[in-house]
Amino acid sequence: LAALLLIGRRGRLGVGALLALCLLAPLVKETGILVPASACLLLLFTHRWRLAVAVAAAGAAGAGLIVAWGAVVDWPVFLATMQAQLARHATPSSPFAFLMSLSSGYGNRVPFRDPVWYAGLLGLVAAGVVCIARRRLREAVFIVPVVAMSLLMLAVSPGLVTQWNGWYRLAIYPLVYVGAAWLVIEIGRFVVLSGRAGIRRRPATAV
User: Fold this and answer.
1) Which residues have CB under 8 Å from 204's CB, separation 6+?
2) CB–CB of 30/82 below 8 Å?
């Protein structure tokens, strides 16, 4: 979220903070590579080519530091650990399963049956249409990371055990809720504007 907020900044401090976040995110967790990936796509969307390249380089450097650390400590053990970790985590076989499965949750103990989640997904689809039609960064900021996470869930490992990996949704939950809020605001705006237009078209009543 901090990286997304910093994308609109153009000062040295904002750019430096953005690059630092993109470098550190993969070091916190491998899926943190989504931070520089999403930021890079959004910067390309706004034609900020040089900063997009810098962000991609920072993310690659963060991922490279993980590999370098493994090589220094014990490469065979590091490689075996990474392979075991990938084999242990089963993820949905499609972005649709990750986003839409009703069985998704934190293990079998905390299912995520949240109706606002699905309203948010509907808002993301509608916002995506507006974003493409008008090329506005405002909607792209909360759409791109959700799409990127869904694609990552497809690429990491094939599987169908959605009830065990639903906690990956927590990374994009705030953005999906932004999609729900966007949908409510846009519907309210449409109702208000339609009401005003109806009043203007109504003929004046003679007194």
Assistant:
1) none
2) no
